[in-house]
Amino acid sequence: MSPPKALFTPLELGDKTLKNRITMAALTRNRAENTYPTQLIKEHYVQRAGAGLIVTEATLVTRQG
User: Fold this and answer.
1) Which of 23, 31, 27 is nearest to 7 (CA)?
2) Is 62 helix (H, G, I), strand (E, B) or coil?
3) Does residue 57 contact residue 28 with C-beta atoms inside 8 Å?
4) SS3 assignment, position 7
5) What distance in Å separates the CA atoms of residue 63 and residue 65, rounded to the nearest whole number?
6) Cα separation of 30 and 53, whole Å?
7) Would 60 disulfide with which of 33, 35, 38, 54, CB 3.0-4.6 Å?
8) Residue-level pLDDT at 65
9) Could you give the residue ranges of the DSSP H alpha helices within the chain?
10) CB–CB of 35/62 below 8 Å?
């Protein structure tokens, strides 16, 4: 079965245009070190860069939140 064509068409959101309609929800995987994002976190998102919209995970401002 071929994928729906609409999924791969651009989508305008305000003044931004997404290259496709594929989105990735935030995944809090708790891989920050001392509240700082790591190279591992960067690589995770680089591998998924084909999505039109990626909502990234949160990092802590302080341990107390």
Assistant:
1) 23
2) coil
3) yes
4) helix
5) 5
6) 21
7) 35
8) 58
9) 39-46
10) yes
Neighbour tally for 59: CB within 10 Å: 13
3-state SS, residue 5: helix
Task: Answer whether 0.70 is exceeded by the pTM.
Answer: no
Q: How far apart are CA 61 and CA 54, in angstroms?
A: 21
Q: Provide the β-strand partners of residue 17.
A: 12
pLDDT tens digit sequence for 6-52: 999 999 999 999 999 999 988 777 788 887 888 998 898 899 999 99
Token code pair at residue 5: 């064509």
The CA distance from 65 to 62, in Å, is 5
Using CA atoms, how far apart are residues 10 and 52, in angstroms rounded to an integer? Answer: 8
Give residue for tokens 């070190």: 33
